[in-house]
TrEMBL record:
Gene3D superfamilies per UniProt: Dihydrodipicolinate Reductase, domain 2, NAD(P)-binding Rossmann-like Domain
Organism: Robertmurraya kyonggiensis
Primary residence: cytoplasm
Designated gene of the protein: argC
Name of the protein: N-acetyl-gamma-glutamyl-phosphate reductase
List of catalytic residues: 148
Matching CDD domains: AGPR_1_C, AGPR_1_N
Length: 344
C-alpha cells in the first residue's frame, strides 16, 4: 500500500518516515516539501543509507493517482489549502495540523488567528482520537489528527468524564512539553539559551488546544464547563506530561477509579494504566506510541489527580496518525507501531 508524506522536512514528517520505514504494509512512495529536490538524507543525515527517497515538489494529481493515503505534516493554515486540493480526489488524507479539528464556526479564527478551512471539509473530517473514535475513523476518508496536548489531556480525562464522576466546572489541566512540539521552524523561544536550565509558561489562557479539548469533552458529557488549561516548555526534546486535577462527585477510592480506567482501556494496546502508587514519567514512553496514565484520589480534598504522558511526536502526532491509517484500512491498529520506548 502506497503512502505519501507532505511536510517531510519537519519533525512530524520525519517521525512519520521513521515509523513508515518499518511498517509491514505501508510503503513510502513519495515525500514532499517546498524545498529543493534532494535526497532526504541531505536534509536528515541520520537517514543516510537507510532511505533513498528523493524529496519532490507537491503534485496533487500524481500523489492522488499513485498513493492510497497522504499524510499532511504541515503547519496550520497550510494544511487546509492542501486538503482542499485533495478533496475531490480518490485518496485518504490524514492531517496532523489543527486546521480541521474545530467544528464550531468562528472557533478556529478565534484561537488560531487564521482563516478557517472550507466548512464542508471541517464537517467531513473525523477527529482521530484513535481509542475513542475507532468506528468513525474506520469509515472516514479525512482525518483531523488530534493535537499533542489535547491527546494527552483527553486520554487522561475520558473515563471519569464519560462515567460522569466529575464536577463539570472543576477541570484544570497543566501541560508540559519538550521543544520538538514547537516544530523545526526557527523561533527565538526554542533557542538553546532560552530553553536550557529554564522552565516557562506560555500562551496563558489562550492555547489553541483549549477549544479542541472542550469540544471532545462535550461529546462525552454535555454539561462540561470551560476548562483551565496551561502549557509550559521544558528543556528536553521529546515528551509531554499533563497533570490534571478534577473534583469528584462523591467519595471514591483510588482503587475504584483505577478499576474504571483499566476497564475503559482494556482493548487499548497503547494505553498503560499504572498500578496504585506508580506514576509515569515522560522518558518511559519516549519514541513509542504509548500513553501512560497514573492517578490518585486525594480523600482529604475530594480531588482526583491524573498524570498522562506521551511522546508528542508519536502518540501526539505521527504515531497516532499511523494508528489512524491502520484503522482506516482495517489493519491491526498496532501495525508498525510496536516499538519499545527508548530508555535511558
Ligand atoms: N511537533 C509536534 O509535536 C506536533 C505537531 N503537530 C502539527 O503537525 C504539523 C507539523 O508539525 P511539525 O512537524 O512540528 O512542524 P515543522 O515546522 O517541523 O515542519 C513543518 C513542515 O511543513 C512544511 N511546509 C511549510 N510550509 C509549507 C507549504 N506552504 N506547503 C507545503 N509544505 C510546507 C515544511 O517543509 P518545507 O519548508 O521543506 O516545505 C516542514 O516540512 C503542524 O501543523 C503541527 O502543528 C501536531 C501535534 C504535535
Ligand atoms: C511546545 C510547543 O510549542 N507546542 C505547540 C504544540 C501545538 C501544535 O503542535 O500545533 P497544533 O495546534 O497544530 O496541534 C504549541 O504549544 O503550540
Amino acid at each position: 500500500m502506497k503512502v505519501s508524506v507532505i511536510g517531510t522536512t519537519g519533525y512530524g514528517g520525519v517521525e512519520l518516515l521513521r515509523i513508515l520505514h518499518r511498517h509491514p504494509v505501508f510503503n513510502i512512495h513519495s515525500i514532499h516539501s517546498t524545498k529543493e529536490e534532494v535526497p532526504i538524507w541531505n536534509e536528515y543525515p541520520h537517514l543516510y543509507n537507510i532511505l533513498e527517497n528523493q524529496i519532490e515538489k507537491i503534485n496533487f494529481d500524481r500523489i492522488s493517482t499513485d498513493s492510497d493515503v497522504v499524510f499532511l505534516a504541515t503547519p496550520s493554515g497550510v494544511s487546509s489549502k492542501l486538503v482542499d486540493e485533495f478533496s475531490n480526489k480518490d485518496i485518504k488524507v490524514i492531517d496532523l495540523s489543527g486546521d480541521l479539528r474545530l467544528k464550531k464556526p468562528g472557533e478556529y479564527e478565534r484561537w488560531y488567528k487564521k482563516e478557517s478551512a472550507n466548512s464542508q471539509l471541517i464537517e467531513e473530517a473525523v477527529y482521530g482520537l484513535s481509542e475513542w473514535n475507532r468506528e468513525q475513523i474506520k469509515r472516514s476518508k479525512l482525518i483531523a489528527n488530534p493535537g499533542c496536548y489535547a491527546t494527552s489531556a483527553l486520554m487522561g480525562l475520558a473515563p471519569v468524564t464519560k462515567a460522569r464522576l466529575i464536577d463539570t466546572e472543576s477541570i484544570i489541566i497543566d501541560g508540559k512539553s519538550g521543544t520538538s512540539g514547537a516544530g523545526k521552524a526557527l523561533s527565538k523561544g526554542s533557542l538553546f539559551a532560552e530553553v536550557n536550565e529554564n522552565f516557562k509558561i506560555y500562551k496563558v489562557n489562550e492555547h489553541q488546544h483549549t477549544p479542541e479539548i472542550e469540544q471532545q469533552l462535550l461529546t462525552w458529557h454535555e454539561g462540561i464547563r470551560p476548562i483551565t488549561f496551561s502549557t509550559h516548555l521544558l528543556p528536553m526534546t521529546r515528551g509531554i506530561m499533563t497533570t490534571i486535577y478534577v473534583k469528584l462527585r462523591g467519595q471514591y477510592s483510588t482503587e475504584q477509579i483505577l478499576y474504571l480506567y483499566n476497564e475503559s482501556y482494556q482493548n487499548a494496546s497503547f494505553v498503560r494504566v499504572r498500578p496504585e502508587g506508580n506514576y509515569p514519567s515522560v522518558k518511559e514512553v519516549a519514541g513509542s506510541n504509548y500513553c501512560d496514565i497514573g492517578l490518585h484520589v486525594d480523600e482529604r480534598t475530594g480531588r482526583l489527580t491524573i498524570v498522562s504522558v506521551i511522546d508528542n511526536l508519536m502518540k501526539g502526532a505521527a504515531g497516532q496518525a499511523v494508528q489512524n491509517a491502520n484503522i482506516m484500512f482495517g489493519f491491526e491498529e498496532t501495525l508498525g507501531l510496536e516499538m519499545m520506548p527508548l530508555y535511558p
